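Please decode residue identities from the backbone states below.
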């Protein structure tokens, strides 16, 4: 089965309304190019506000499903596409999540995934804003295949991609907001970007699935978001790679049947020694 995935790599401004309208226009453009599934970057509706601890930023959060979820449901139905949209969720007073919603091509709301791994590093103070996800790893049965969603910092954890693949994901989407501090040298920048890309290509290989990573671009404060959105096939081959410093809307065709082919010839799932992995749930092994 051939599926066309749309990647929307864009820069953002302070005005949430403008970002959402820009995203809607980009989605329409991707649909015209033939996209079946469109994925947006992490927290596309705002600047990446987690670069500082500011209580005012909680006003950016919204109910899910809510008004904007409904707008994207209507858009998905109109265009006949699946939409993967990353949002700042307010579940209740004092309880917030970094959440991605998945909407099917008939406009139905399929559910949400809440980011499981929450970073707390200079420039990425996400623990100030977000509670750890409590829904587990999820897959969504869409018109165009079974997809899994993980978010940004989740990218670095093989356990997350493994469990998502084990639940039946044919594609794993990674909405992302990651960049370079403007004080870093070029060698450090290059090393960081390729580490980020390589580990996700490794997830694709280990699990025999396509991975689609969609990052933001542009300079926000002291952070230069490195773009570089890409699609990897189930053996780590790069099918598309965006630039670092430009907004790009790209449609990439992938073959979901490749999963079966690669898994037959490279039977990692068959040979897993599940009887030997119990210690993986420990924080460390002395």
């Amino acid at each position: 089965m051939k599926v066309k995935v749309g990647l929307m790599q864009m820069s953002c401004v302070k005005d949430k309304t403008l970002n959402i309208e820009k995203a809607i226009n980009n989605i329409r453009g991707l649909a015209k190019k033939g996209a079946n599934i469109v994925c947006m970057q992490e927290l596309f509706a705002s600047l990446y506000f987690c670069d500082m601890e500011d209580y005012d930023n909680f006003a950016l959060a919204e109910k899910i499903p809510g008004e904007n979820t409904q707008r994207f449901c209507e858009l998905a139905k109109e265009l006949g596409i699946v939409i993967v949209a990353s949002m700042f969720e307010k579940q209740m007073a004092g309880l917030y999540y970094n959440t991605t919603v998945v909407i099917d091509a008939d406009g139905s709301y399929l559910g949400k995934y809440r980011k499981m791994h929450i970073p707390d590093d200079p420039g990425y103070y996400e623990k100030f804003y977000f509670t750890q996800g409590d829904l587990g790893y999820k897959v969504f049965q869409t018109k165009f295949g079974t997809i899994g969603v993980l978010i940004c910092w989740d990218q670095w954890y093989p356990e997350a991609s493994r469990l998502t693949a084990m639940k039946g994901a044919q594609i794993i989407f990674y909405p992302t907001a990651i960049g370079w501090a403007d004080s870093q040298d070029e060698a450090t920048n290059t090393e960081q970007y390729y580490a980020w890309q390589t580990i996700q290509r490794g997830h694709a290989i280990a699990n025999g699935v396509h991975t689609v990573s969609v990052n933001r671009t542009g300079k926000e404060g002291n952070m230069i978001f490195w773009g570089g959105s890409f699609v990897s096939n189930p053996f780590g081959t790069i099918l598309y790679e965006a630039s670092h410093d430009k907004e790009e809307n790209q449609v990439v065709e992938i073959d979901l049947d490749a999963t079966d082919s690669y898994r037959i010839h490279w039977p990692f799932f068959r040979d897993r020694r599940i009887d030997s992995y119990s210690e993986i749930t420990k924080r460390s092994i002395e």
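Observation: Helices lie at 16-32, 67-79, 158-166, 186-207, 258-265, 268-271.
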